[in-house]
From TrEMBL, chain B:
Membrane-crossing residue ranges in chain numbering: 6-29, 62-84, 96-117, 129-148, 188-212, 232-252
Keywords: Cell inner membrane, Cell membrane, Membrane, Transmembrane, Transmembrane helix, Transport
UniProt keyword Cell inner membrane present: yes
Descriptive protein name: Spermidine/putrescine ABC transporter permease
PROSITE patterns on file: ABC_TM1
Keyword DNA repair: no
Length: 310, 264
């Protein structure tokens, strides 16, 4: 009897349709319940909150927080950090990926770079900030090391030209934050762009050489146009990861640099905007930036797939 | 055939990359050993490892990690299995849902969680226990992209339909199929997904910080604010832990594929 009842489950064909359809969805119900409770509900709450006043009536007012000079400043600092780190990290990562694929770096270097890319791309947050404070902070390893490089100067006074904090460097500033972010961004670039570089066919290089093209011709007219969607796509990924980062900036600067994420953190703690609903609008602004990024990424992905498939 | 002629720029950029990796790492290691003036010692590590607050927060985060792994396997394994068996048409929707944590910044997500569950009628943040439920739910969501992907890749490599039909024709029920047939075949995928999930929970700051629970992340921030050498030691320890998790994943997935029962 057991078997007789179970058998139709296998074939699934000659069953009464509505019942069949309902049974098909049973297995994914826990997943969707979980998603509705812990993803959909909080997100819609934020979204609706962005368009409500304190009494719960619909309003466009909150969106005007995005024109608040204080908030605009934080968006522009966040965008600035994200653009600079994704460009610098992306370019460095591209060259390192070039080194371990076409650049024919020794095998042991390739192995170490691939392993450490996986590691460093996952090494973010608070410990990363600690590592940079220990290296480039006031008493950090490099700072103290560079201080000891001194030359006998005029009048018997030694000059130490590499005291970086004397010459204007400060780890707890935008520059420091940028250097720190690059530590997890360029490995991310190496990981995402290496497959694309490996996909460059030797025949393309040979064809370019046979037609009399130089190395520069090959890169400018063949390789880079093919790689461009992958490079841009990967950089968007870097941009998004820098834009959403909170822990590293918080631990490094103690919240003294007003990134959007830091501002939202302060809004959660103590409503610095004096209106909880404006906090929702702030969050909405961030999600919109991220959504644009992901849309751009998926468009570029589709263009990349065209080349890598053939 | 193999050309041993090295390209100057290739070597140059590889060395630049390696330096960027190793200088901060070496700097941190050296700094963490300098606590006692004039000589190298493990004093900073000793202080951290003997700090009851460290042990407490590490234990808390580790337990949270294990619970998160358990819950997320319980949610995602049946889902992925079901999608492969019955509802392949739903896969694109679920794939989009599972990458949502990459699109929504963690701080925004936590904001949403707090504003939704800390208010009437739910008010879950009033008690430690209900807050911990929120923490686990948050961790499950944050590690969802990794866990789902690991299980999906694993499920692709086995013939779900044949295995299920074979088990059914031998008289197994759904629970038996999952426990005795699917899970043993997917143990490598489950293990690597679990390790990433665990590593995510251990390193997470924002949830523990804003829900005010004694997790490892907030402890680290506290140490970073008050101490000089101990944070460096913590960074090295955490680097080591990440290395361990990723190394285990690599070791597991390399040895594993040939041992799977069925492959396509």
């Amino acid at each position: 009897m057991e078997i007789a009842r179970r058998k139709p489950d296998l074939t699934n064909q000659n069953r009464w349709m509505p019942n069949n359809r309902w049974r098909n969805w049973i297995g994914v119900i826990p997943f969707f319940l979980f998603i509705i409770a812990f993803v959909l509900l909080p997100s819609t709450n934020l979204f609706i909150g962005a368009f409500q006043d304190s009494k719960g009536n619909f309003t466009w007012e909150n969106i005007s927080v995005l024109a608040n000079p204080y908030v605009l400043k934080s968006f522009s600092i966040s965008l600035q950090v994200s653009v600079i780190t994704s460009l610098a990290g992306g370019i460095l990562g591209f060259f390192v990926a070039y080194a371990i694929t076409i650049g024919k770096a020794p095998q042991w270097m390739r192995n170490i770079i691939m392993t450490f890319s996986g590691l460093a791309a996952n090494f973010g947050g608070v410990p990363l900030a600690f590592a940079f404070i220990a290296t480039l902070g006031h008493t950090g390893f490099i700072t103290t090391f560079l201080k000891t490089i001194c030359f006998p100067g005029t009048g018997g006074v030694q000059t130490c030209p590499f005291d970086i904090y004397e010459t204007g460097f400060n780890l707890y500033s935008l520059t420091g934050l940028t250097l720190t972010y690059i530590y997890f961004e360029f490995p991310l670039m190496v990981l995402t762009i290496t497959p694309a570089l490996e996909g460059l066919k030797r025949e393309w290089r040979e064809a370019s050489d046979n037609l009399g093209g130089s190395t520069i011709h090959y890169w400018v007219f063949v390789a880079l146009p093919i790689l461009m969607p992958s490079i841009l796509g990967a950089m968007i990924l870097l941009f998004a990861s820098a834009f959403g980062a909170f822990a590293t900036a918080q631990a490094l600067t103690g919240g003294s640099i007003y990134l959007v994420t830091i501002l939202i953190g302060q809004q959660i703690r103590g409503d610095v905007l004096n209106n909880p609903n404006e906090g929702y609008a702030l969050a909405l602004g961030m999600v919109i930036v991220m959504a644009v990024c992901i849309a751009g990424y998926s468009i570029l992905q589709r263009r990349t797939a065209r080349w890598l498939k053939s | 055939m193999k050309t041993t002629k090295y390209n100057f720029w290739g070597i140059f950029w590889a060395v630049v990359g390696l330096l960027y990796f190793f200088i901060p790492l070496y700097g941190t290691l050296e700094f963490s050993l300098r606590m006692i003036k004039g000589r190298l010692s493990f004093e900073a590590y000793r202080i951290i490892l003997e700090d009851p607050k460290f042990l407490e927060s590490f234990r808390y985060s580790a337990i949270m990690g294990l619970i998160t792994v358990l819950i997320s396997v319980m949610i995602f394994l049946p889902t992925v299995y079901w999608i492969h068996l019955r509802l392949p048409s739903v896969r694109p929707i679920i794939e989009v849902i599972t990458i949502l944590p990459f699109i929504i910044p963690v701080i925004v997500y936590v904001f949403g969680i707090i504003r939704t569950f800390s208010r009437p009628p739910l008010q879950m943040t009033l008690h430690p226990f209900t807050t911990d439920i929120l923490m686990v739910a948050g961790y499950v969501v944050l590690s969802m992209p990794y866990m789902y992907r690991a299980l999906d890749v694993g499920m692709r490599s086995i013939d779900v339909r044949t295995l299920t039909e074979a088990a059914q024709s031998l008289g197994s029920n759904w629970l038996q199929i999952l426990l005795n047939v699917i899970i043993p075949n997917l143990r490598i995928a489950i293990l690597s997904g679990s390790l990433i999930c665990f590593a995510t929970v251990i390193g997470e700051l924002i949830l523990g910080d804003f829900l005010v629970r004694p997790a490892l992340g907030p402890y680290m921030v506290l140490i970073g604010r008050d101490r000089a050498y101990e944070p460096a030691a913590l960074a090295i320890l955490s680097y080591g832990l990440t290395w361990l998790c990723l190394g285990l994943i690599q070791a597991v997935s390399r040895g594993g594929t040939s041992q799977q029962l069925t492959g396509r």
